[in-house]
Amino acid sequence: MRNGFELVGTMHILFLTDNFPPEVNAPASRTFEHCREWIRAGHRVTVITGNPNFPKGKVYEGYRNRLWQSEDMDGIKVIRVWTYISANEGFVKRTLDYQSFMVSAILASPLVRRVDVVVGTSPQFFTVCAAYVVSRFKRIPFVFELRDLWPESIKAVGAMEASLPIKLLEKIELFLYRKAAYIVSVTHSFRRRLGQRGIDENKIGVVTNGVDISRFQPREKDAKLVAHLGLAGKFVAGYIGTHGMAHDLEIILEAAARLRSSPGGNAYVFILLGDGARKQSLQEQARDRGLDNVLFIDSVPKEDVARYWSLLDVSIIHLKKTEIFTTVIPSKLFECMGMGIPVLHGVAGESADIVNRTGVGLVFEPGNPTELMASLTRLRNEPELLAQLRKHCIEAAPNYDRTKQAEMMLEMLTQVAV
């Protein structure tokens, strides 16, 4: 035994991912935290990724978009390769970004020797295409980590209509599902959906997203940030994450506008922290509507994220009202649990079931600002309910501890690599 894992021989795991720290989005955090735990368990892990640039499409300070470079990150060997870098906007440019990483990852793979299993992670599956090709060259099994039903989600947000290219992408998607030695899904709904499409459910495991409870813990509001942002005495509701087409954050602006003109509405402040394709438009809308109760904050370094979480009395999680999003579980739900921050959850389906079952927040109809506003005012006016939801968050968080999730996935990889 080491660090809670039972070693059955050591493996060398090659992980291909388009996002990795110092980027702070959900795929980057999940991959790093899993790989870190596998290293602690005594295995070797090599990650092939691009140079950090998400979501603004600008390479982070200290990095250069070179053909190849490597670094060590908590024992993980990280190989960074050249990619076509584009801001997170425009389907064609994003696709070129994804495809360039696919090619570069394949070309870099011969640098990694004696690999037992290769993992490719979505949301988009060009990274998984690379994992499949690498697995053929190295004659090792490949695992598909399924984080999104792509390209189905492209149609859901209106980024692309049903067309010949979409049909081609769907054929590639099914090919990869069939060729994968194993599929690690982040939701049970994804597993059922694949089963309905003819994929053997016996080779699909579920490892939901989780939270690093060593980083995300209950804490007092950060006094310096409270003073700096003028939040003293305010009831703070916030959204922390990507401002994309799928998130439909206009609902927050509408709720802010309604509260601003209602009795006692000046007690509320909304924080939107992060970047994404819709951020500039949201800022312009807020400015045009005179919403001085909405604060926009750019993405912050990973080590500062918890400080900003601490500012929130409640967290808002929201996705467009569409059938495909009933199958997803936003990863920020688990960070809210770790921080002890009650959730106002505007996502139907599997994630709403988790919120209701654990009692960590209130569920409202996606796209319904009236329900969002009513839930906000209820939590501010019922401090006993707010305290109860906080207690439930803290109680639920250990069930989604990232260490446990990493152990589950490692067991799946071990079975495949044997």
Write the layout of secondary structure elements.
Elements: E1 12-16, H1 26-40, E2 44-50, E3 68-73, E4 76-81, H2 91-108, E5 117-121, H3 126-138, E6 142-146, H4 152-156, H5 164-179, E7 182-185, H6 188-196, E8 204-206, H7 223-229, E9 235-240, H8 250-260, E10 268-273, H9 279-288, E11 294-297, H10 305-309, E12 314-318, H11 332-339, E13 343-346, H12 350-358, E14 361-363, H13 369-381, H14 383-396, H15 402-417
Parallel strand pairs: 1-2, 1-5, 2-4, 5-6, 6-7, 7-8, 9-10, 9-12, 10-11, 12-13, 13-14
Antiparallel strand pairs: 3-4
Summary keywords:
Rossmann fold; 418 residues; six-stranded parallel β-sheet; eight-stranded mixed β-sheet; globular
Description:
With 418 residues, the chain is α/β, with parallel strands linked by helices. Helix 1 (26-40) crosses helix 15 (402-417) and helix 11 (332-339) crosses helix 14. It has 15 helices and 14 strands. The longest helix is centred in the N-terminal third of the chain and has 18 residues, at 91-108. Mean pLDDT is 91; it is low at 1-8. The protein has two domains: 12-210 and 401-417, 3-Layer(aba) Sandwich (Rossmann fold); 223-399, 3-Layer(aba) Sandwich (Rossmann fold), CATH 3.40.50.2000. 40% of the residues lie in helices and 17% in strands. It has helices at residues 26-40, 91-108, 126-138, 152-156, 164-179, 188-196, 223-229, 250-260, 279-288, 305-309, 332-339, 350-358, 369-381, 383-396, 402-417, and strands spanning 12-16, 44-50, 68-73, 76-81, 117-121, 142-146, 182-185, 204-206, 235-240, 268-273, 294-297, 314-318, 343-346, 361-363. The protein has an eight-stranded mixed sheet, with helices on both faces. The chain has a six-stranded parallel sheet with strand order 11-10-9-12-13-14, with helices on both faces.
